[in-house]
Every structure is written in structure tokens, then in C-alpha cells.
Specification:
By secondary structure, the protein is of the alpha+beta class. 46% of the residues lie in helices and 19% in strands. The chain has one domain. A hairpin with a 6-residue loop joins strand 1 and strand 2. The relative contact order is 0.11.
């Protein structure tokens, strides 16, 4: 009897093992990362921007000490616009997913900070670190990510300005519009909330409110253009 019970128990365990579902596999998605580090860097001494294939992104940076004396780590979640998401992943592909040495190695190039581009996916992984690169795809990616970092810095500064120095808002807004005109800021939608607050505040001078309004309209126009391209 004991032998029969033992055989029945072993058989039941084998059936259970066969019927148990296989553990789900964790499938990684492609992602891009840009990091910067330089103690003399301004407005950021160091920062990292991570972008997933669906456009979800995260910024983490340490500001350079300035008029605010703020060196606390700053973090920001945001979503990369559809057009820019397609562009930066296409540029990563053109750059062979950063598998190689892309630094210029020129002796008389000024130090502008250590930059690293990294690509990760289930099929391909690559990274490259450089001060300055002659590769146009690497340079375009660098310009984009630095533009994002500048935009996030301005959001931080505008929030500070709004709370503690509204009289200086005009100068800050003009500076931001000049940077937009020279294509040195990216993803302005990140700072749309503080821009709306400025545009809607009757206690601010009209020139600041109008500037914020123009920037908000440019964000809306850019989003509309992206939707039109997607629909085609």
C-alpha cells in the first residue's frame, strides 16, 4: 500500500510540473541614453537623459551653482514628441548604434564635457564616449539632447523667477525666445505648465505674458504638425 501511495504521489507531482505555466519572459525595449559630465559645465555639471522606444523619458541632473545656489539633484519625467522620437532612434541606427570610436581626438579642441551616447535593445547594445565628434549624426543627437537639458533648466529657472523675482521675468523670457529662434532648445512642451502660469498671471507685465503666449502657440503648432504627419 505504501508503495502504491508513493507511486501515485510521484505521478501527481509529474503531472503538476507538466501543467505548470512557464515563467513569463521579460522583454526589453530599445532605449537611448545621453549623459554629460563636467564640473565646470553650466547650467548642469552632470545629467542623464533616458528615452524609451515609446517616447517616455526621464531627466536627472545636478545643476551648477549659480544665482539660486541650488545644487540639489533635479529630476523630470517627460514624453519626447513623435517626430523627435523617430529622428533620434533613426540617427542611432545611422551611427551603427554607437559601436565604435566617435571622438575626434583633435588636440586643440576645447574641453566641453564628457558625453556618452548609449543604445540598448534585446538585439544590439552599443555606447560611445566623446568630448567632440566630427560625425554629423552624433553631433545632431548631441545638439538635440543638450537642447532638452537647456529647456529643462529654463523650466527650473522660470519657476524660481515666478516665485522670487517676477520683475526679472521679462529678461528671462526674452532669453528663452532667443534660444528658441536659434534652435537651441528642444521639447518646449516639457515646460508648458510654467509657461501657462506666466501667460495667465495678470500680476505680471504684459510683455512677459505675451512672450509666454507666443511660446505656447509655437508648442501647439508643433504638436499639430506632428499629428498631421502621423496621420498621412
Amino acid at each position: 500500500m505504501k508503495l502504491l501511495l508513493s507511486l501515485m504521489l510521484i505521478s501527481a507531482l509529474r503531472i503538476g510540473a507538466q501543467q505548470a505555466p512557464a515563467p513569463a519572459l521579460t522583454i526589453a525595449h530599445p532605449s537611448l541614453q545621453f549623459s554629460f559630465e563636467w564640473l565646470q559645465g553650466a547650467p548642469w555639471q552632470k545629467y542623464t537623459i533616458d528615452v524609451a522606444a515609446d517616447g517616455k523619458a526621464h531627466f536627472e541632473g545636478t545643476p551648477h551653482p549659480d544665482e539660486t545656489n541650488d545644487t540639489d539633484v533635479f529630476q523630470q519625467d517627460f514624453t519626447v514628441s513623435g517626430a523627435n522620437r523617430q529622428k533620434i532612434f533613426a540617427l542611432a541606427q545611422k551611427a551603427n548604434y554607437f559601436r565604435g570610436d566617435f571622438d575626434s581626438h583633435l588636440k586643440h579642441i576645447a574641453q566641453t564635457g564628457e558625453k556618452t551616447l548609449r543604445y540598448e535593445s534585446p538585439q544590439v547594445n552599443g555606447s560611445t564616449t566623446f568630448n567632440w565628434s566630427k560625425d554629423p549624426d552624433i553631433e545632431e543627437l548631441t545638439h538635440y539632447f543638450q537642447g532638452v537639458a537647456t529647456t529643462i533648466d529654463f523650466g527650473r529657472r522660470l519657476a524660481f523667477q515666478y516665485r522670487f523675482d517676477k520683475l526679472g521675468m521679462n529678461e528671462r523670457m526674452k532669453e528663452l525666445e532667443d534660444l528658441q529662434a536659434s534652435h537651441n532648445v528642444e521639447e518646449l512642451a516639457i515646460i508648458a505648465p510654467i509657461l501657462r502660469k506666466i501667460a495667465d498671471d495678470p500680476n505680471l507685465m504684459n510683455i512677459s505674458r505675451e512672450s509666454a503666449g507666443r511660446l505656447l502657440r509655437s508648442i501647439s503648432q508643433s504638436e499639430a504638425a506632428t499629428q498631421t504627419q502621423t496621420a498621412r
